[in-house]
Amino acid sequence: MAEGKLALITGAGGGMGQATVARLSRDGFRIAGTDINEKGLDTAITSATLRNSRMNARRTETTRLAIHARFNTRTGSSRVHVVAIIQ
After folding, report:
1. What is the rounded distance in angstroms from the CA atom of residue 6 to the CA atom of residue 83?
2. Exposed/middle/buried for residue 74 (C-beta within 10 Å: 0-12, 13-18, 19+)
3. Cα–Cα distances in angstroms (integers) from residue 52 to residues 37, 60, 67, in the given order
4. Domains in the chain and their CATH numbers?
5. Nearest of 35, 25, 80 to residue 57 by alpha carbon
6. Nearest-angstrom CA–CA distance, 8 and 25
7. pLDDT digits (tens, 9 = 90+) for 3-14
8. What integer pLDDT is reported at residue 2 of this predicted model?
9. Of 29, 65, 73, 77, which is most buried by a Cβ count within 10 Å?
10. Pick the residue with more confidence: 73 or 25?
């Protein structure tokens, strides 16, 4: 279904962001997540890992979509399939 597709989630460290990471990870997405909440990002990474998904995270204040270019380099993807901007 979504196996190997990339999801960009801003606000991934908050409650709604963590829930979004969990859901998309369960569906097979690789996750690129950003947030200023480093502890929350760690929780999101753990959630993704428990669901056998890969997550790259960056602590940042930005919600600008240009940030996805940094993750594409790491994930080997040139295409973002899902974008979730959570504030």
Report:
1. 9
2. exposed
3. 23, 25, 24
4. 6-85 (3.40.50.720)
5. 35
6. 12
7. 778 888 889 999
8. 79
9. 29
10. 25
